[in-house]
Amino acid sequence: MSQTTTTGTEEMSLPTTMRAWQWSTCGTTIEEAIELKDSVPLPTSKRPLAAGESLIQVHAAALNPVDYKLAELPVVGRMAIPKPATPGLDFAGRVVQEGPDCNVKVGQMVFGKLEPKQQFGTLGEYVIGSKAGTVPIPSGVSVEQAATLGVCGLVTYQCLAPNVRAGDRVFINGGSGGTGTFAIQIAKALGCHVTTTCSGRYTKFGTIAHLLILSQVQTPNCARILEPTS
Q1: pLDDT tens sequence across 8-24
Q2: Count of beta carbons in the 10 Å neighbourhood of residue 40
């Protein structure tokens, strides 16, 4: 069974079900609880698209700690997340259906993030993207790259951008981690002088980005080293 959606000159045939990784109970870890289902109803089977929303066919998704940590909390996992639930907040994909007053169009490649405690996450073939959380993929950016930006990229930008200006000196503790790699690039793009720490095997990132980089293995007391030049 399939349904057809028409918007302007675009027409796309949609299935009534999708494949998705889902969990219903999580006694230990989500890794043990999750399983692949072949006939999960589309998110739009529960409700129509609201103003600004779009139905997106997921081409790539990325996972963050929030995707499994919430599910593994005894109370939140049982009470706050509708089940059966599909994890995942970060996505990139193609718009297949538009709601009213939508800022993206059917056929357009987009990326973004969902809000936590979603029942239909990005480890399913289709998700509902919000107006604020869905934007077109810029030229030259792959779907795999775009799918990693939503949670870590946005949170890092929101922390840095209002609090620094060009010429500021920024210290990033843990520059080779998920948030750290975004923080280095964003701070550099904002014109800051960046100092970061990482383990010795990741010091090549410092060479690439022209950073003052301190190996946490070789220099355990980073604060003492930074103090004379801060």
Answers
A1: 445 578 999 999 999 99
A2: 20
